[in-house]
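4.2 Preliminary Data

To establish feasibility before requesting continued support, the project team ran the inverse folding procedure on a target of 637 residues. The structure was first converted into the token representation described in Section 3, and no sequence information of any kind was made available to the design step. The complete token record follows.
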């Protein structure tokens, strides 16, 4: 017998101890557990929580938000900068700002503001609707409101008037024309605005979003425009209103070198502006980009090669050096690390509803002499394949499969014989995988090819497009794993298919702890004897909820906010997912009109005699209940 499978084996297989950052681990029951306070032993069993939520009438799929993790992330980034400033003797302050575009959910922003109040956490907006949100939410007296994005006169005047409410609102000039609009509004309102300049750095970032930075980036002022902007402000007597210098090199930066390079260039913009007379400057906003370790490798676009403390140390040391060299005061450092703050706190939980298993352990039937030669060749391969001739037999199998398709297309092979050839190929592949497993290093390529070809498809109750759109759109790697049975060896390899009728509605990119890259299949347990099998997609708190679309009219999932208590945990908030009626209203369908149209159709069918009155009543009952129901699959009561 082989070595007994343990939870440590599962932890290594799924990489949870690396990407989990102490927030996610496997407990002694073999279930994923949440440790919101990281180093504390207080845990929430995610499988048991899911069952508890279902008992309360909350439906899977569920988006579970752990509010204590939000608080922990706010504290962590502030502690890192405080330590860096103390270690380097930095005389300025640190102020974090949360860009609400990362996740604008009201309950989440409310919690960020509450937990961030003691740290002066501010909010950033990138549009007029977002501005209206942050003006209402950012109530802490020293919290910054950073206004980015495209602006019109109404946007600028609203931001400027908010200063009279006591809001610390800074209007960042992303395009030169906006500066003229700010000056016009200042004269109209007879007020002195707080202005920031966004510089367009030549330095590019790194990772998936590298094209959003550099000299060709969408936002920012060139060095020429910055000089002209200073001259214009000086001419208007508003140069002292220039309080902030801003730059941004993209999201999820995997390399600390890219961050250091941008800091040196962006810091030079700040010091040069100050030396040329913009002595009202007191903030330098280094933007976002602080990475999140989605895969635990430290070497991919979904990871990073630096720690949060190293990030803070480098920002502080580079800016301090530049300021001391030019004998100017140390500014308040502002970061817009939205992904860092919220990615970890949210987990998507869904159930598996079925499986498509292509494995065959026997041939469909004995092959006869009068069967096509192709089937006889396949039977020969099945009978003779072993570890000595595996490579040869694998190549023969690939060739025969191609021939089978060609012969079918040309009308030589019947549909029945093609189906038998396919079933025989799967049986041979299943046997080859078993042989390859005995020597995984020698037969690694064959094993991977065959595993991907005949892996299972697990059908899952969620929508990729609604809940993890970046997985589909940009190939973002998210940690995915079963929530339970982790003290048992997962014997199946699978891809995950969602409920949509789109062929792209699947997840087939998973963490590979051995190579440091990714695999195209996920290790899963057999569904035999399991009434419920739950899977979690972790670290979905940044961008996913707000980018999700209504593909096939699957709406928002049920969401809950969970926090630790002395007795265990409490459900702080429950946010019901979209009903069918709500989703249909987004695309301009009226519930009452739909019901009336179907009712009229039933009346006509009753007159024709194709539908009885009882059947019409049952149909209308199901129709109206369906409009009020969840957009996802629901378990029968």
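Position-by-position output of the design step:
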């Amino acid at each position: 017998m082989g070595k007994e499978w343990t939870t440590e084996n599962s932890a290594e297989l799924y990489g949870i101890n690396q990407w989990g950052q102490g927030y996610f681990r496997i407990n002694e029951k073999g279930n994923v557990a949440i440790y919101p306070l990281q180093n504390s032993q207080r845990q929430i069993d995610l499988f048991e929580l899911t069952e508890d939520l279902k008992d309360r009438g909350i439906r899977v799929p569920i988006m579970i938000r752990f509010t204590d993790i939000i608080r922990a992330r706010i504290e962590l980034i502030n502690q890192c900068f405080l330590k860096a400033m103390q270690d380097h003797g930095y005389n300025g302050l640190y102020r974090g700002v949360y860009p609400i575009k990362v996740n604008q959910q009201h309950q989440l922003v409310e919690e960020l503001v509450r937990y961030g109040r003691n740290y002066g956490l501010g909010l950033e907006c990138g549009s007029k609707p977002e501005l209206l949100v942050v003006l209402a939410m950012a109530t802490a007296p020293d919290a910054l409101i950073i206004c980015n994005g495209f602006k019109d006169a109404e946007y600028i005047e609203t931001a400027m008037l908010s200063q009279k409410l006591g809001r610390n609102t800074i209007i960042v000039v992303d395009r030169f024309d906006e500066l003229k609009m700010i000056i016009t509004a200042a004269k109209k309102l007879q007020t002195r605005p707080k202005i920031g300049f966004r510089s367009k750095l030549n330095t590019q970032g790194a990772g998936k979003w590298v094209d959003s930075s550099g000299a060709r980036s969408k936002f920012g002022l060139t060095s020429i425009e910055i000089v002209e902007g200073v001259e214009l402000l000086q001419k208007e007597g508003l140069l002292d209103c220039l309080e902030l210098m801003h730059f941004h090199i993209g999201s999820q930066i995997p390399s600390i070198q890219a961050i250091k390079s941008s800091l040196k260039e962006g810091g030079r913009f700040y010091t040069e502006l100050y030396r040329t007379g913009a002595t009202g400057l007191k903030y330098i906003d280094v933007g976002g980009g602080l990475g999140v370790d989605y895969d635990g490798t430290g070497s991919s676009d979904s990871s990073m090669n630096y720690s949060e403390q190293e990030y803070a140390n480098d920002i502080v040391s580079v800016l301090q050096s530049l300021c001391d060299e030019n004998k100017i005061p140390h500014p308040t450092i502002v970061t817009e690390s939205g992904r860092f703050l919220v990615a970890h706190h949210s987990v998507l939980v869904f159930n598996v509803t079925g499986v498509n298993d292509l494995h065959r352990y026997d041939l469909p039937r004995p092959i006869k002499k009068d069967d096509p030669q192709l089937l006889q060749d396949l039977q020969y391969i099945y009978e003779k394949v072993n570890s000595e001739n595996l490579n040869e037999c694998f190549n023969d199998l690939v060739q025969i499969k191609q021939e089978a398709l060609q012969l079918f297309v040309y009308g030589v092979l019947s549909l029945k014989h093609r189906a038998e050839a396919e079933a025989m190929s799967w049986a041979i592949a299943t046997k080859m995988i078993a042989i390859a497993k005995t020597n995984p290093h020698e037969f690694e390529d064959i094993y991977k090819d065959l595993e991907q070809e005949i892996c299972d498809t697990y059908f899952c109750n969620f929508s990729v497009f609604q809940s993890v759109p970046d997985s589909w759109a940009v190939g973002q790697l998210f940690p995915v794993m079963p929530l339970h049975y982790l003290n048992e060896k997962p014997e199946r390899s699978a891809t995950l298919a969602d409920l949509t009728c789109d062929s792209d509605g699947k997840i087939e990119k998973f963490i590979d702890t051995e190579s440091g890259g990714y695999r195209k299949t996920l290790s899963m347990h057999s569904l035999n004897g399991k009434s419920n099998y739950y899977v979690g997609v972790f670290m979905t708190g940044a961008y996913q909820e707000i980018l999700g679309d209504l593909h096939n009219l699957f709406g928002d999932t049920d969401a809950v906010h969970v926090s630790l208590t002395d007795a265990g945990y409490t459900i702080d908030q429950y946010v019901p997912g979209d009903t069918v009626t709500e989703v249909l209203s987004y695309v301009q369908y009226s519930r009452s009109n739909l019901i009336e149209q179907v009712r009229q159709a039933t009346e006509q069918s009753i007159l024709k005699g194709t539908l009885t009155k009882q059947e019409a009543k049952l149909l209308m009952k199901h129709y109206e209940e369906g409009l009020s129901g969840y957009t996802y699959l629901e378990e029968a009561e």
